[in-house]
Specification:
alpha+beta, four-stranded antiparallel beta sheet, 221 residues, six-stranded antiparallel beta sheet, globular
Length: 221
């Protein structure tokens, strides 16, 4: 079955990153990845790869010409650097400075970068691009999604399992150079990798909307 962003909350983009794999691999080789991934900010060459006429094109098609990358994380699962991730929604954004605005909070610092949980409408206005540097067959920790869960709003922790049971689950397989585009609020999870040297994924959140009250997206540069 072909998934669509509107109906299922996810769309497979075969080969979308294939022309840029060598540049992505060069970038990844310069960034040491810790368990759980590394948040990318000020990394040389990243902005050019995520430009609207390069890997950012998929987000522009959905969000419009104002779409821009607001957070990027590089994951590298493999032997000695492996983990599993339970079902959850992404709920925080990275910002430049703390400004206390009603509806924004709690605040946190992740790898030295300031994060905050915004009103969920901010998350609902975003899309997330996952670019695969390595093949992701069923045993290399593919992302699992609950199709249609992007339409449920903010799902309380105690209701996540029930929401997944109602929506069902789907496995997002990929070849090296493929990308998946997701509605950022979608419920998702992944298992630990097994039997492969790497499962490198560049995950990028995009938004086209400014933040209120003097808050500003951190972005990638």
């Amino acid at each position: 079955m072909a998934f669509t962003l509107e109906d299922h909350g996810a769309a497979h983009l075969p080969g979308a990153a294939a022309p840029f794999l060598s540049a992505l691999e060069a970038l990844a080789s310069r960034v040491p990845v810790a368990r759980g991934g590394v948040r990318l900010h000020g990394v040389e060459g990243l902005a050019e790869l995520l430009a609207p006429d390069v890997l950012g094109a998929a987000a522009v098609q959905v969000l419009g010409a104002d779409a821009r990358p607001v957070r990027a994380i590089l994951f590298d699962k493999g032997e000695g650097n492996n983990w599993a991730l339970g079902w959850h929604q992404d709920r925080t954004i990275a910002v430049r400075t703390r400004v206390d605005v009603p509806g924004f909070g709690p605040w946190s610092v992740k790898q030295g970068l300031l994060h905050v949980e915004p009103p969920f409408a901010v998350i609902e206005g975003m899309v997330t691009l996952r670019v695969h540097l390595d093949a992701v067959p069923a045993d290399n920790a593919p992302l699992l999604i609950a199709p249609g869960s992007h339409r449920l709003g903010r799902v309380p922790e105690g209701e996540v399992a029930g929401a997944v049971a109602r929506c069902g689950t789907a496995t997002c397989l990929a070849a090296a150079g493929d990308a998946w585009l997701y509605a950022t609020p979608i419920l998702h999870a992944s298992a630990a990798a097994s039997g492969h040297a790497h499962r490198r994924v560049l995950q990028v959140d995009f938004s086209a909307a400014p933040l209120p009250g003097g808050l500003d997206w951190l972005g990638i540069g």
